[in-house]
Design a protein that fits this description.
Blueprint (H helix, E strand, L loop, with lengths): L2 E8 L4 H10 L5 E5 L30 E7 L9 H9 L12 E7 L1 H6 L8 E2 L4 E5 L12 E5 L11 H13 L6 E4 L5 H9 L4 E5 L2 H12 L8 E4 L10 E7 L2 H14 E13 L3 H11 L2 E8 L2 E7 L6
Helix pairs in contact: 4-5, 7-8
Length: about 325
Protein backbone atom coordinates (compact mmCIF):
# COMPACT_ATOMS: atom_id res chain seq x y z
CA UNK A 1 0.00 0.00 0.00
CA UNK A 2 1.23 3.49 -0.86
CA UNK A 3 1.07 6.39 1.57
CA UNK A 4 0.89 10.16 1.16
CA UNK A 5 3.49 12.08 3.13
CA UNK A 6 2.43 15.57 4.23
CA UNK A 7 5.39 17.66 5.35
CA UNK A 8 5.04 20.84 7.41
CA UNK A 9 8.04 23.15 7.73
CA UNK A 10 7.82 24.77 11.15
CA UNK A 11 9.82 25.64 14.29
CA UNK A 12 11.27 23.46 17.03
CA UNK A 13 8.84 24.83 19.60
CA UNK A 14 5.82 23.86 17.48
CA UNK A 15 6.90 20.26 16.74
CA UNK A 16 4.57 18.50 19.17
CA UNK A 17 1.58 20.69 18.31
CA UNK A 18 2.07 20.12 14.56
CA UNK A 19 2.49 16.39 15.21
CA UNK A 20 -0.83 16.39 17.04
CA UNK A 21 -2.54 18.27 14.19
CA UNK A 22 -1.33 15.78 11.59
CA UNK A 23 -2.36 12.80 13.73
CA UNK A 24 -5.72 14.39 14.44
CA UNK A 25 -6.31 14.80 10.70
CA UNK A 26 -5.68 11.08 10.13
CA UNK A 27 -1.91 10.55 9.85
CA UNK A 28 -0.92 7.01 10.86
CA UNK A 29 2.65 7.96 11.69
CA UNK A 30 4.66 11.12 12.31
CA UNK A 31 8.32 11.71 11.47
CA UNK A 32 10.18 14.62 13.07
CA UNK A 33 13.34 16.28 11.77
CA UNK A 34 14.36 18.88 14.34
CA UNK A 35 17.60 20.85 14.22
CA UNK A 36 17.31 21.41 17.97
CA UNK A 37 17.90 17.71 18.61
CA UNK A 38 21.48 18.13 17.38
CA UNK A 39 22.43 21.43 19.00
CA UNK A 40 23.87 19.89 22.16
CA UNK A 41 25.40 16.74 20.68
CA UNK A 42 29.17 16.47 20.71
CA UNK A 43 31.51 14.20 18.79
CA UNK A 44 33.10 11.34 20.67
CA UNK A 45 32.09 8.31 22.64
CA UNK A 46 29.80 9.18 25.54
CA UNK A 47 29.80 12.92 25.43
CA UNK A 48 28.21 14.97 28.21
CA UNK A 49 24.76 13.83 27.10
CA UNK A 50 25.64 10.17 26.66
CA UNK A 51 25.91 10.12 22.87
CA UNK A 52 28.30 7.71 21.22
CA UNK A 53 27.96 8.77 17.59
CA UNK A 54 29.42 11.55 15.53
CA UNK A 55 26.54 14.02 14.94
CA UNK A 56 28.12 15.18 11.69
CA UNK A 57 27.68 11.66 10.28
CA UNK A 58 23.89 11.90 10.54
CA UNK A 59 22.05 13.98 7.93
CA UNK A 60 19.97 16.57 9.76
CA UNK A 61 18.36 19.97 9.42
CA UNK A 62 20.50 22.98 10.22
CA UNK A 63 17.59 25.10 11.44
CA UNK A 64 13.92 24.82 12.32
CA UNK A 65 11.97 21.60 12.04
CA UNK A 66 10.01 19.52 9.55
CA UNK A 67 7.13 17.32 10.70
CA UNK A 68 5.88 14.71 8.23
CA UNK A 69 2.62 12.85 8.64
CA UNK A 70 1.91 9.64 6.71
CA UNK A 71 -1.68 9.22 5.47
CA UNK A 72 -3.16 5.95 4.14
CA UNK A 73 -4.72 5.62 0.70
CA UNK A 74 -8.31 5.92 1.93
CA UNK A 75 -7.78 9.54 2.99
CA UNK A 76 -8.04 12.16 0.24
CA UNK A 77 -5.11 14.34 1.28
CA UNK A 78 -5.50 17.31 -1.13
CA UNK A 79 -8.63 18.49 0.62
CA UNK A 80 -6.83 18.31 3.99
CA UNK A 81 -3.88 20.53 3.06
CA UNK A 82 -5.68 23.89 3.50
CA UNK A 83 -7.05 22.74 6.86
CA UNK A 84 -3.63 21.65 8.07
CA UNK A 85 -2.10 24.94 6.95
CA UNK A 86 -4.81 26.91 8.74
CA UNK A 87 -4.55 24.92 11.97
CA UNK A 88 -0.77 25.32 12.06
CA UNK A 89 -1.09 29.07 11.44
CA UNK A 90 -3.45 29.35 14.42
CA UNK A 91 -0.78 27.99 16.76
CA UNK A 92 0.34 31.59 17.18
CA UNK A 93 -2.89 32.14 19.12
CA UNK A 94 -1.53 29.73 21.73
CA UNK A 95 1.90 31.31 22.00
CA UNK A 96 3.65 28.96 19.58
CA UNK A 97 5.57 30.19 16.55
CA UNK A 98 4.37 28.22 13.49
CA UNK A 99 7.39 29.38 11.49
CA UNK A 100 7.38 29.09 7.71
CA UNK A 101 4.30 26.83 7.77
CA UNK A 102 5.02 25.47 4.32
CA UNK A 103 2.82 22.41 3.69
CA UNK A 104 3.62 19.93 0.90
CA UNK A 105 2.61 16.38 -0.04
CA UNK A 106 4.11 13.45 -1.95
CA UNK A 107 3.29 9.78 -2.51
CA UNK A 108 5.57 7.35 -0.66
CA UNK A 109 5.62 3.60 -1.29
CA UNK A 110 5.16 1.29 1.67
CA UNK A 111 8.72 -0.04 1.71
CA UNK A 112 10.20 3.43 1.93
CA UNK A 113 7.75 4.43 4.67
CA UNK A 114 8.72 1.40 6.73
CA UNK A 115 12.44 2.28 6.69
CA UNK A 116 12.48 6.08 6.55
CA UNK A 117 12.65 6.35 10.36
CA UNK A 118 15.96 4.52 10.57
CA UNK A 119 17.83 7.35 8.87
CA UNK A 120 17.14 9.72 11.75
CA UNK A 121 16.84 7.54 14.83
CA UNK A 122 19.84 6.22 16.79
CA UNK A 123 20.57 5.05 20.37
CA UNK A 124 20.75 7.94 22.82
CA UNK A 125 21.34 8.03 26.54
CA UNK A 126 18.78 10.55 27.77
CA UNK A 127 19.24 10.41 31.58
CA UNK A 128 21.72 8.92 34.05
CA UNK A 129 19.97 5.57 33.85
CA UNK A 130 17.83 5.53 30.69
CA UNK A 131 19.01 4.91 27.13
CA UNK A 132 16.58 4.96 24.20
CA UNK A 133 17.38 2.29 21.61
CA UNK A 134 15.55 1.81 18.28
CA UNK A 135 14.40 -1.78 18.07
CA UNK A 136 16.44 -2.50 14.93
CA UNK A 137 19.78 -1.47 16.55
CA UNK A 138 22.17 -3.86 18.31
CA UNK A 139 23.39 -1.91 21.33
CA UNK A 140 25.39 -3.17 24.31
CA UNK A 141 25.52 -0.94 27.40
CA UNK A 142 28.92 -0.22 28.89
CA UNK A 143 27.54 1.30 32.08
CA UNK A 144 25.86 -1.01 34.59
CA UNK A 145 23.40 1.77 35.49
CA UNK A 146 21.91 1.83 31.99
CA UNK A 147 18.35 0.67 31.51
CA UNK A 148 17.47 0.19 27.85
CA UNK A 149 14.15 1.33 26.41
CA UNK A 150 13.54 -0.29 23.03
CA UNK A 151 11.20 1.65 20.75
CA UNK A 152 9.84 1.51 17.24
CA UNK A 153 9.08 5.19 16.52
CA UNK A 154 7.09 4.42 13.40
CA UNK A 155 3.57 5.00 14.73
CA UNK A 156 3.58 7.73 17.40
CA UNK A 157 5.78 10.58 18.52
CA UNK A 158 7.39 10.77 21.94
CA UNK A 159 10.56 8.75 21.39
CA UNK A 160 12.71 10.45 24.01
CA UNK A 161 14.64 12.95 21.92
CA UNK A 162 12.31 15.94 22.28
CA UNK A 163 12.94 18.18 25.34
CA UNK A 164 9.46 17.62 26.76
CA UNK A 165 9.92 13.85 26.83
CA UNK A 166 13.42 14.09 28.26
CA UNK A 167 12.20 16.38 31.03
CA UNK A 168 9.63 13.78 32.04
CA UNK A 169 12.12 10.93 31.88
CA UNK A 170 14.41 12.88 34.20
CA UNK A 171 11.49 13.66 36.52
CA UNK A 172 10.48 9.99 36.71
CA UNK A 173 14.05 9.12 37.58
CA UNK A 174 13.88 11.59 40.48
CA UNK A 175 10.59 10.52 42.03
CA UNK A 176 10.33 6.74 41.55
CA UNK A 177 11.73 4.82 44.49
CA UNK A 178 9.93 1.52 43.97
CA UNK A 179 6.49 -0.07 43.56
CA UNK A 180 4.57 3.18 42.89
CA UNK A 181 1.19 3.18 41.17
CA UNK A 182 1.66 5.39 38.08
CA UNK A 183 -0.90 6.81 35.65
CA UNK A 184 0.51 7.92 32.28
CA UNK A 185 -1.86 10.40 30.61
CA UNK A 186 -1.43 10.84 26.85
CA UNK A 187 0.99 7.92 26.64
CA UNK A 188 1.86 8.34 22.92
CA UNK A 189 4.66 5.89 22.16
CA UNK A 190 4.50 4.49 25.70
CA UNK A 191 8.04 5.63 26.48
CA UNK A 192 7.18 7.10 29.89
CA UNK A 193 5.34 3.98 31.00
CA UNK A 194 8.26 1.79 29.90
CA UNK A 195 10.70 4.06 31.73
CA UNK A 196 8.59 4.04 34.89
CA UNK A 197 8.48 0.24 34.89
CA UNK A 198 12.24 -0.06 34.35
CA UNK A 199 12.85 2.41 37.19
CA UNK A 200 10.87 0.23 39.58
CA UNK A 201 7.24 1.36 39.45
CA UNK A 202 4.57 -1.20 40.25
CA UNK A 203 1.10 -0.85 38.75
CA UNK A 204 0.90 1.37 35.67
CA UNK A 205 -2.18 2.52 33.77
CA UNK A 206 -1.48 4.30 30.47
CA UNK A 207 -4.14 6.19 28.53
CA UNK A 208 -4.38 8.03 25.23
CA UNK A 209 -7.35 9.41 23.33
CA UNK A 210 -5.86 8.24 20.01
CA UNK A 211 -6.18 4.57 19.00
CA UNK A 212 -3.00 4.77 16.89
CA UNK A 213 -1.03 5.87 19.96
CA UNK A 214 -2.56 3.13 22.11
CA UNK A 215 -1.60 0.47 19.56
CA UNK A 216 1.88 1.96 19.25
CA UNK A 217 2.35 1.93 23.02
CA UNK A 218 1.31 -1.73 23.17
CA UNK A 219 3.79 -2.64 20.42
CA UNK A 220 6.61 -0.79 22.15
CA UNK A 221 5.79 -2.40 25.50
CA UNK A 222 6.07 -5.78 23.78
CA UNK A 223 9.63 -4.88 22.77
CA UNK A 224 10.60 -4.46 26.43
CA UNK A 225 10.34 -7.74 28.39
CA UNK A 226 11.22 -5.96 31.66
CA UNK A 227 8.28 -3.55 31.26
CA UNK A 228 5.39 -5.97 31.10
CA UNK A 229 2.13 -5.64 32.98
CA UNK A 230 1.28 -2.07 31.92
CA UNK A 231 -2.42 -1.56 31.21
CA UNK A 232 -2.96 0.57 28.09
CA UNK A 233 -6.36 1.90 27.10
CA UNK A 234 -8.25 4.61 25.24
CA UNK A 235 -9.43 7.46 27.44
CA UNK A 236 -9.71 11.25 27.35
CA UNK A 237 -7.40 12.55 30.09
CA UNK A 238 -8.71 11.06 33.36
CA UNK A 239 -12.40 11.29 32.49
CA UNK A 240 -14.27 8.62 34.42
CA UNK A 241 -11.16 7.49 36.35
CA UNK A 242 -11.59 7.23 40.14
CA UNK A 243 -8.53 5.93 41.95
CA UNK A 244 -5.65 6.93 44.20
CA UNK A 245 -2.29 6.86 42.41
CA UNK A 246 1.19 7.69 43.66
CA UNK A 247 2.25 9.44 40.44
CA UNK A 248 0.40 11.00 37.52
CA UNK A 249 2.63 11.89 34.56
CA UNK A 250 1.54 13.89 31.52
CA UNK A 251 3.63 15.09 28.59
CA UNK A 252 0.96 17.05 26.74
CA UNK A 253 0.36 20.65 25.65
CA UNK A 254 -0.25 23.29 28.33
CA UNK A 255 -3.81 23.92 27.14
CA UNK A 256 -4.62 20.27 27.79
CA UNK A 257 -2.81 20.21 31.15
CA UNK A 258 -5.16 22.89 32.56
CA UNK A 259 -8.31 20.69 32.66
CA UNK A 260 -6.18 17.73 33.81
CA UNK A 261 -4.98 19.51 36.98
CA UNK A 262 -8.21 18.98 38.95
CA UNK A 263 -8.51 15.40 37.68
CA UNK A 264 -4.94 14.61 38.74
CA UNK A 265 -5.49 16.16 42.17
CA UNK A 266 -8.58 14.04 42.78
CA UNK A 267 -6.86 10.85 41.57
CA UNK A 268 -3.66 11.28 43.60
CA UNK A 269 -3.23 10.07 47.15
CA UNK A 270 -2.07 12.67 49.71
CA UNK A 271 1.64 13.17 49.07
CA UNK A 272 1.32 11.94 45.47
CA UNK A 273 3.29 13.52 42.64
CA UNK A 274 2.02 15.21 39.49
CA UNK A 275 4.67 15.35 36.73
CA UNK A 276 3.89 17.60 33.76
CA UNK A 277 5.72 18.72 30.63
CA UNK A 278 4.83 19.98 27.15
CA UNK A 279 4.81 23.49 28.60
CA UNK A 280 6.21 26.14 26.27
CA UNK A 281 7.93 29.10 27.96
CA UNK A 282 5.00 31.49 27.45
CA UNK A 283 2.61 29.10 29.24
CA UNK A 284 4.80 28.23 32.25
CA UNK A 285 3.37 30.97 34.48
CA UNK A 286 -0.18 29.85 33.66
CA UNK A 287 0.51 26.25 34.67
CA UNK A 288 2.30 27.33 37.87
CA UNK A 289 -0.70 29.47 38.84
CA UNK A 290 -3.27 26.77 38.04
CA UNK A 291 -1.32 24.14 39.98
CA UNK A 292 -1.09 26.35 43.07
CA UNK A 293 -4.73 27.41 42.84
CA UNK A 294 -5.71 23.74 42.92
CA UNK A 295 -3.59 23.17 46.01
CA UNK A 296 -0.50 21.54 44.52
CA UNK A 297 2.96 22.37 45.86
CA UNK A 298 5.52 22.83 43.07
CA UNK A 299 8.61 20.97 44.26
CA UNK A 300 10.81 21.20 41.19
CA UNK A 301 10.88 22.88 37.78
CA UNK A 302 13.38 22.27 35.01
CA UNK A 303 13.76 23.91 31.62
CA UNK A 304 15.25 22.55 28.41
CA UNK A 305 15.37 25.00 25.53
CA UNK A 306 11.92 26.70 25.50
CA UNK A 307 10.16 23.88 27.35
CA UNK A 308 9.38 23.45 31.05
CA UNK A 309 8.78 20.37 33.15
CA UNK A 310 7.35 20.50 36.68
CA UNK A 311 7.05 18.15 39.63
CA UNK A 312 4.13 19.06 41.90
CA UNK A 313 2.86 17.25 44.97
CA UNK A 314 -0.53 16.95 46.62
CA UNK A 315 -0.21 17.99 50.28
CA UNK A 316 -0.28 15.15 52.79
CA UNK A 317 -2.71 17.13 54.88
CA UNK A 318 -5.36 18.62 52.62
CA UNK A 319 -6.98 21.74 54.06
Amino acid sequence: MDWTAVKVITTSEAVEAVSYILTDEGAQGVQIEDAADFQDLHKGKYGNRGEFIDPSSIPHRQSGAAVTGYFPQDIFVPELLPTIHQRVAKLSDYGLNPGENKVSAEVVDNQKWATVWQKYYHPLRVTNQLTIVPQWEAYHPEDQREKLIYLDPGMAFGTGTHPTTRLMLEALEKVITGNEYVIDVGTGSGVLSIAAKLLGAGKIDAYDIDEVAVNSAKKNLALNPDAQGVHVGINSLLDGIHTQADIVVANILAEVIVPLILQAYVNLRPGGKFLVSGIIDDKASLIRRKLREQGFIIEDEQQMKDWHGMIASKPIEVK
